[in-house]
Specification:
Length: 737
């Protein structure tokens, strides 16, 4: 078996991708095909002995699309304003159309020259012109519905297409009768039904399509982690080159503040590198001769020379890109309730309508009665309520989620979240805040704690060391003014020195005490802080230790409650982190998580997620870093906190914009209510059809109960109102804060 990814042109909606996927999977020689609408490609596993690339291209063409050959690069298109303007225009036209066609029915003022009784021709022409515009607007829906019908995979587009064309065709027939002199037929026009059905479907697609290109943009951002240029050393001379010009074995130079260009090994120098986007570790790693460096890492404070080893597609970043793309093209089957119903409902309605038509002719009822009954069956079975049942509930729920700090990028999430039985948490930046913060202060002197932190923060403000940011953030968050510092000095590997108001202040680790021959009587406190995962900063004034400050990554305050609630719901919780085992175990114990997997790389995270899924676990992954991207994409539901990097958020389907893990609980609760609501909507929509179709056929005519297309259209509207009101009940859902 061979696997290939083809770029596809011409897909505009999920109906397109679903139809193409079903068609490809029917072909002999194709073992599995998965079509990705967002990435505009199809991953196909096929028997290369039976099929060639030309055959795959032909299958795509037969399905109504175009193959652009093997997928090579990610392309994104900026959203033009044309789509938004077009939607606004058709929203206005929909309102105008409804006013003209139905305003007089509810005693609204009639536009004089469009009165259906006095200016019949004007009335008809205005409705016809606007409806034809909607037909062109929804031509893709009609086209997709036709293609899916031809391929024997009818879906909602097929249902919409039949309803629209039936209403439009019957209206044209009645327009013909009006022009022949039968003016009373002007009230048998159902042009607005055809137009408004198209409008509602377009509304749903417009909402879903706003963030369509996010995944592609995210992967492009990941590629841009590496710098565009780098400096290499050639015969002792520095030379600036592009990344493409770097060859294996080249000596590359990195100075403080620059990013590592390619994967390699340090041959000289020393520096602290921020590799959090790969390892998930918030503390920068100390690197020296013999250590490996990863492309995209940020050099904080040193000068290093390293030998290029992995370049281009071999780099760690490229590997992550490959994993994200591959994971994005692998999707779990999601039950599309409405499509399943439509798959049976559409052919059944067509068959019922055709049989009814010929039955009336056979009974001698005449062509007019037969065609009227035929259209009545189709109109009464119009998919408006069935089509609204799912998207409307989802739109209401997505709005509810957004107002509670939950941004959902794929509507399927509201269905899938009910299935979650395992939630995997990244540690750094997810269960913790992800940034170094002052965790504890042990004060030994006469200086107040606030003043002690002010002295330390003012000195640290002159430093470029990563720990310094914790002090700067503390002073800024607490609106504490920085003091003037003189004679600042950085003592590499020990600490920093500066003078404030003429007094020398020394900050550093325990080594600096030995350097200045200061006796340390506080080893127990140092040991305790270190065991709790803190980085230690001694504050020294007048050759005496004034205090010890522990700097650490702090656990989110709501994390413990969230884990407790999830456990009460019988949802397993797992911590998955690149951190060392002791730190991970300590955090997990504090929060209440019993299963911990530590010291894992990005590719291993994705594999572990897949292993859980293979063990019948429906997995939600919650992370924040670029290192989490493959795992987020591999999981059934990827959740990112808003403080995470852009790539992590764009690789996930859910973003917690309020950075509150309790939103995960709210998402699950909303999901359960939403699916229950959708099932209720589908029941009422289907029940309505089961009730009305027999009446439309004429089964109850002996009891003087019958309907015409006009009443059928009104009944359709009433069924839609029922679905709308039921969906709006979702707004009453209460969320935990």
């Amino acid at each position: 078996m061979k696997k290939i990814i083809l770029s596809i042109d011409g897909m505009t909606c999920s109906a397109c991708s679903n139809g193409l996927e079903k068609y490809l999977n029917k072909q002999e020689g194709i073992q599995n095909a998965s079509v990705n609408l967002v990435m505009a490609n199809a991953t196909i596993e096929y028997n290369e002995k039976l099929l060639k690339l030309e055959d795959l291209d032909r299958f795509v063409k037969e399905a109504g699309f175009k193959s652009l050959g093997e997928f090579k690069e990610i392309k994104t298109e900026a959203k033009s304003k044309k789509e938004k303007i077009k939607f606004i225009i058709f929203t206005i036209l929909a309102i105008v159309l409804m006013y003209i066609s139905m305003g007089h029915m509810i005693n609204l003022p009639t536009i004089p020259f469009l009165d259906p009784h006095m200016y019949t021709n004007n009335y008809i022409i205005s409705l016809l012109v606007i409806t034809i515009l909607f037909i062109f607007y929804g031509f893709d829906i009609l086209k997709n519905g036709y293609k899916n019908l031809i391929h024997k995979t009818p879906n909602m587009d097929t249902l919409v297409g039949i309803g629209v064309l039936a209403s439009f065709g019957y209206s044209l027939y009645n327009i013909y009768l009006v022009f022949k002199g039968y003016n009373h037929n002007v009230m048998n026009l159902y042009l607005e039904s055809a137009a408004i059905v198209i409008y509602f479907i377009k509304l749903g697609r417009y909402i879903d399509g706003i963030s369509k290109d996010k995944t592609k943009e995210a992967i492009q951002k990941l590629v841009k982690i590496t710098p565009n240029t780098a400096v290499i050393k050639v015969d002792g001379i520095e030379k600036e080159v592009t990344l493409d010009e770097i060859q294996k074995g080249d000596i590359v130079i990195s100075k403080a503040g620059e990013k590592i260009a390619v994967d390699g090994e340090i041959i000289s120098g020393k520096a602290h590198l921020d590799e959090s986007f790969i390892t998930g570790e918030s503390k920068p790693a100390s690197k020296e001769k013999g250590n490996k460096v990863i492309a995209g890492s940020l050099n904080y404070d040193g000068y290093i020379e390293y030998k290029a080893e992995r370049i281009g597609r071999e780099s760690t970043v490229s590997e992550i890109v490959r994993l994200v793309v591959e994971a994005s093209n692998t999707k779990a089957p999601i039950a599309k309730i409405a499509d399943k119903v439509a798959g049976i409902f559409v052919p059944a309605v067509i068959l019922i309508a055709i049989v009814t038509f010929f039955a009336y002719l056979a009974l001698g009822q005449g062509f007019s009665t037969a065609i009227t009954t035929f259209v009545t069956v189709l109109v009464v079975a119009c998919p408006c309520s069935l089509g609204l049942a799912t998207p409307l509930a989802i739109v209401v729920s997505e709005g509810l989620c957004a107002s509670n700090g939950i941004l959902i990028k794929k509507s399927e999430i509201l269905e899938n979240a009910t299935k979650v039985n395992t939630i995997v948490f990244d540690k750094t930046g997810t269960l913790t805040y992800g940034t170094l913060k002052i965790a504890e202060v042990v004060n030994y002197g006469d200086i107040e704690e606030k003043e002690l932190l002010r002295l330390a923060g003012s000195i640290e403000n002159k430093s470029t060391h990563p720990i310094a940011k914790a002090f700067k953030d503390y002073l800024e968050e607490n609106k504490i003014e920085f003091l003037d510092v003189e004679n600042f000095e950085n003592i590499a590997g020990f600490g920093i020195i500066g003078k404030i108001n003429g007094e020398e202040i020394i900050l550093g680790n325990s080594k600096i005490l030995d350097k200045y021959q200061i006796k340390n009587e506080h080893l127990e406190d140092e040991k305790r802080l270190a065991e709790n995962g803190n980085s230690i900063v001694y504050v020294i004034k007048d050759k005496k230790i004034q205090g010890i400050i522990g700097v650490n990554d702090i656990v989110r305050e709501e994390a413990k409650d969230v884990v407790k609630i999830l456990n009460s719901k019988n949802i397993d919780t797992v911590m998955l982190t690149g951190d060392n085992e002791s730190t991970a175990e300590k955090i997990a114990k504090e929060i209440g998580i019993t299963k911990v997997i530590s010291n894992v790389l990005p590719s291993e995270k994705a594999k572990l997620i897949k292993d859980l899924k293979n063990n019948n676990k429906f997995v939600m992954m919650c992370g924040d870093g670029i290192n989490d991207s493959p795992a987020l994409a591999s999981s059934d539901i990827g959740v990112s906190v808003n403080s995470g990097t852009d790539i992590a958020m764009d690789s996930s389907e859910v973003i917690l914009t309020n950075n509150n893990l309790k939103s995960i609980i709210n998402l699950i609760n909303i999901s359960k209510r939403t699916i229950k609501n959708i099932k209720q909507n589908l029941f009422w929509a289907f029940f309505y059809n089961c009730l009305m179709i027999p009446i439309a056929i004429g089964v109850l005519k002996p009891f003087n109960i019958s309907i015409n297309p006009m009443i059928a259209s009104l009944a359709m509207v009433l069924s839609s109102i029922t679905v709308i009101l039921n969906a709006l009940r979702l707004k009453s859902i209460k969320n935990i804060k």
